[in-house]
TrEMBL record:
Entry's localization field: Cell membrane
Annotated protein name in UniProt: Cation acetate symporter
PROSITE patterns found in the cross-reference section: NA_SOLUT_SYMP_3 (PS50283)
Region (Disordered): 530-559
Principal place of residence: membrane
A single GO molecular function term of this UniProt record: acetate transmembrane transporter activity
A single GO cellular-component term on record: plasma membrane
Bias (Low complexity) ranges: 545-559
Pfam families: SSF (PF00474)
InterPro entries: Na/Glc_symporter_sf, Na/solute_symporter, Sodium:Solute_Symporter
Family of this protein: Belongs to the sodium:solute symporter (SSF) (TC 2.A.21) family.
Transmembrane segments: 6-25, 45-69, 75-96, 116-134, 154-171, 183-201, 229-253, 265-285, 319-346, 384-403, 409-428, 440-466, 472-490
């Protein structure tokens, strides 16, 4: 079969993504545009963008492959990935938006009033983002290898280049439009071929080719060793991991207010529920006509290979090309969101471009303000290039890890770290900085140990090996318990302004209250204060300010 149509489809998706991103560039003028699209994204557009970003290589290719290979137990993946947004809707979405933060380290600084907690959160954001980028690049290499026979690095490099070209010009403003476009493209790319496949499959006679997979293992749940533990661990990882993914959380900061954040989350639940029916159907059809892919170790490619199993000629080529376009869009959309979130944290917390800068003192207030913006954008772009390059290198080092399992491990790390910190930080005023840091170390250490063990093939046996395969059932409860117990033991170090912070998180925006001084978007705080337009204690700079300035109470501002 000729692969020309698939190659053309991949090129067209890349060009269309760049064109949409270029349109977003026209709208990106400030640092707020680059990081949170000026907090002006409508709920419908944001829901499409969140869904486009969230539906990654694991969703488009991995779910079908796992259903094909392992059967009914793998239905927990789409269920858990969708249900994670239900927890976000109920517990996190509105308070997180009201916090006014840009990133998870911002939230840690606001809630815990600790520089150490912020730095620990920054390192975890980078680690989780890189871990999630690896399967996106892996999936791109798998797709182009399946379609053209080219080496895997070709697809990985292609995604890296297109992602960089999307992110570098316009940041979050461009990425939002691109990701919304990608969601509807992915939905169309799966839905259209499926309608043809179901028609052909319905006319097919005979039962499934059992091949290397036993029917009983495929259709009956909780079969095999330690199946109950592995299932509960997967449920915990997917339910709590969603709220801890930095590229998911950062999208809530782009909503206009807490009410808009809830509406966007509800729309995401609808969009994801409809989408996840499709890859499951591909896995079931593949069980009947392409079970040989399991023995060959190519289960992840079942979505791309099904059209050629049921059709011939131009129809098979056209359907495969459409699926290739959707798969490439999946890699691009998730990768762009991850790169934006990780590069933002690298440029603001790890590089700390603004440390000690008072732009108004050297260049004049307004010129210094513009210089600060230009410097911040340049550092963001440099960080983008570094993040993409490091991700490519890590992808090569972890080539043997299946796409979907790599994502499972990333969810386990997020569920064991930021999940407990967000839930306890939002709903329990007793959480202290020491408690949160201890929980991040315990949960993150155990889950990251599992990632290293799996990535580099460190052989382990018995229950320890099972926990290393799926650590969330152990690491998530331990993280919660550690945060609670250490916070109780250090209750004397409760953040000074925790009462005001809790009001900020939970009081609706229309209520006239003192919500504190945390405004990370006010890059011009020193210059503005020098001009006398605002109170110097009223704003908190995003980077390069000391802890006292970040915690300074506000009496002048009323939101």
């Amino acid at each position: 079969m000729s692969n020309a149509a698939s190659i053309v489809a991949v090129v067209l998706v890349s060009l269309a993504s760049l064109a949409v991103g270029a349109f977003g560039l026209r709208l990106s003028r400030t640092m707020s545009d680059f990081y949170v699209a000026s907090r002006g994204v409508s709920p419908v557009l944001n829901a499409s963008a969140i869904s486009g970003e969230y539906l990654s290589a694991a969703s488009f290719l991995g779910v079908a492959g796992l259903v094909l290979a392992r059967g009914v137990d793998m239905l927990w993946l789409p269920v858990g990935w969708t249900a994670g947004y239900l927890l976000l809707l109920v517990f996190v979405a509105a308070p997180l938006r009201r916090s006014g933060a840009y990133t998870l380290p911002d939230f840690a600084q606001l809630r815990l009033e600790s520089d150490l907690a912020r730095r620990a959160s920054s390192l975890l954001v980078v680690a989780i983002g890189l871990l999630y980028l690896i399967p996106q690049f892996q999936g791109a290499g798998l797709t182009l290898r399946t379609l053209t026979g080219a080496p895997s690095w070709v697809g990985q490099l292609a995604v890296a280049v297109v992602v960089s070209l999307n992110v570098l010009p316009g940041g979050m403003r461009s990425v939002t439009l691109v990701q919304a476009f990608h969601y509807w493209l992915k939905l169309l790319a799966l839905l259209t071929p499926l309608s043809f496949l179901l028609g052909a499959f319905g006319r097919r006679s005979g039962g499934p080719d059992v091949g290397a997979v036993l029917v009983s293992d495929w259709v009956e749940p909780l079969r095999g060793d330690h199946a109950l533990y592995l299932t509960y661990s997967l449920v915990l990882a997917t339910f709590f991991g969603t709220m801890g993914l930095p590229h998911v959380v950062v999208r809530f900061y782009t909503n206009r207010d807490g009410r808009a954040a809830r509406r966007a989350t509800l729309a995401v639940l609808v969009l994801l529920s409809g989408f996840y029916l499709l890859p499951v159907a591909y896995g079931v059809i593949g069980r009947y006509v392409a079970v040989d892919l399991v023995a060959a170790g190519r289960a992840d490619s079942v979505v791309l290979e099904l059209p050629s199993r049921l059709f011939d000629g131009p129809l098979a080529e056209g359907l495969t090309a459409l699926l290739a376009a959707g798969a490439f869009a999946a890699f691009l959309s998730t990768s762009t969101g991850l790169v934006v979130s990780v590069a933002g944290v690298v440029s603001q917390d790890l590089v700390r471009w603004g440390a000690g800068r008072r732009p108004g003192h050297r260049d004049g207030h307004r010129d210094g303000h513009r210089h600060g913006h230009r410097q911040g954008i340049r550092t963001f772009r440099r960080s983008t290039v570094v993040v993409v390059a490091v991700s490519l290198a890590l992808t090569v080092a972890s080539a043997g890890v299946p796409v979907a399992h790599a994502v499972e491990l990333t969810f386990a790390v997020a569920a064991s770290t930021f999940g407990p910190m967000l839930l306890l930080g939002i709903w329990w005023r007793g959480l202290t900085a020491r408690g949160a840091i201890a929980g991040l170390v315990v949960g993150g250490g155990l889950s990251m140990g599992a990632v290293v063990s799996t990535t580099f093939g460190i052989a382990t046996g018995g229950w320890f090996g099972v926990v290393m395969t799926q650590p969330a059932a152990v690491s998530v409860p331990l993280a919660f318990a550690t945060m609670v117990l250490v916070s109780i033991a250090t209750r004397g170090s409760t953040p000074e302004h925790v009462a005001r912070t809790m009001v900020r998180l939970h009081a609706p925006e229309h209520i006239d209250l003192n919500r504190g001084s945390f405004h990370p978007e006010r890059w011009d705080r020193p210059a503005a204060a020098a001009e006398g337009t605002v109170d110097a204690t009223q704003h908190t700079a995003y980077a390069g300010t000391d802890a006292t300035a970040r915690r300074a109470p506000s009496t002048a501002r009323r939101d």
